[in-house]
Design a protein that fits this description.
Blueprint (H helix, E strand, L loop, with lengths): L2 E2 L5 H8 L3 H7 L1 E5 L1 H10 L3 E6 L1 H6 L1 H9 L4 E3 L2 H7 L8 E6 L5 H6 L4 E5 L4 H13 L4 E5 L8 H7 L8 E4 L1 H11 L3 E10 L10 E5 L14 E4 L11 H15 L1
Parallel strand pairs: 1-4, 3-4, 6-7, 6-10, 7-8, 9-10, 9-11
Antiparallel strand pairs: 2-5, 3-5
Helix pairs in contact: 1-6, 8-9, 8-11
């Protein structure tokens, strides 16, 4: 049975603290909201450590809640106002989960077969989440997030990823670590640039680390050099493509060549 909590229970502040990247890194935990993501997490086998909800939300999704409780997840009831303090959205969906960050690191991802996507300096969480969805959809081995860019476990990234973060290995990486790990794994780094080979005709390494950068600064904001470069040809001289669009086109092209 769910446990009713006072609005002043110290658990609430501990959950609220997880809204900051530093605390998420230190504790190895993150939060996400809503019944859709909760169902995705449960079906993906993600370790859900705690669940908080309003009486109405818990009642509306009684079957899912009972399954989680049966699996050992403690469930807590909060007043609507107390839960709203934990929420990252204007209209809270009434369910907030605390989950363990899936264990993964750069070396483990590079050991997996297939291409790896590198988010080289991407700061927009919506773009990052969309790229995670595309990486899963088109069979990437995993996704590396350059340190200094968006946090993979930021709430907006999780929402935009629509469950892909629960299934696809991700890791944060510093530039020095990336270069060393790529060399050790025998993986070439392939950057998307405006002066690279045309993507349509380029020979793409099946085990490459494919870097997509900031829309304005490109991959050069994170990487000083790379092994190869490709570009997505456009019909007119518009500005560079949105990072999520460019990365998705690249991943789709890779999947066609595989």
């Amino acid at each position: 049975m769910p446990t009713i909590l006072s609005p002043h229970n110290p658990r609430i502040e501990r959950v609220r603290d997880l809204r900051t990247p530093r605390v998420r890194r230190e504790r190895g935990r993150f939060v996400f909201e809503g019944p859709t993501l909760l169902a995705e997490a449960a079906s993906s086998g993600l370790a859900i450590e705690e669940l908080y909800g309003t009486e109405a939300a818990l009642a509306a999704h009684a079957g899912l809640i009972a399954a989680l409780e049966g699996g050992g997840t403690p469930v807590f009831v909060l007043p609507e106002r107390a839960l709203a303090r934990l929420s990252d959205v204007e209209t809270p969906p009434g369910l907030i989960a605390v989950a363990v960050q899936p264990a993964s690191d750069v070396a483990t991802i590079l050991e997996r077969p297939g291409a790896v996507l590198l988010l080289a300096g991407i700061n927009d969480p919506g773009n990052a989440g969309t790229l995670l969805r595309s990486a899963e959809a088109f069979g990437a081995a995993g996704v590396l997030f350059a340190r200094g860019g968006v946090d993979p476990f930021a709430p907006k990234v999780i929402r935009a990823a629509m469950g892909s973060l629960f299934r696809l290995p991700v890791a944060a990486v510093a530039v020095e670590e990336l270069v060393e790990a790529a060399a050790a794994a025998g993986r070439p780094i392939v950057a998307t640039t405006l002066d690279g080979e045309p993507l349509a005709t380029a020979t793409l390494p099946a085990n490459g680390i494919f870097a997509v950068g900031h829309e304005r600064h490109g991959v050069a904001g994170f990487l000083a050099s790379w092994d190869r470069a490709v570009r997505i040809e456009q019909a007119s001289a518009t500005e560079s493509l949105n990072a999520a669009v460019a990365g998705s086109i690249l991943l789709y092209t890779l999947s066609l060549r595989r």
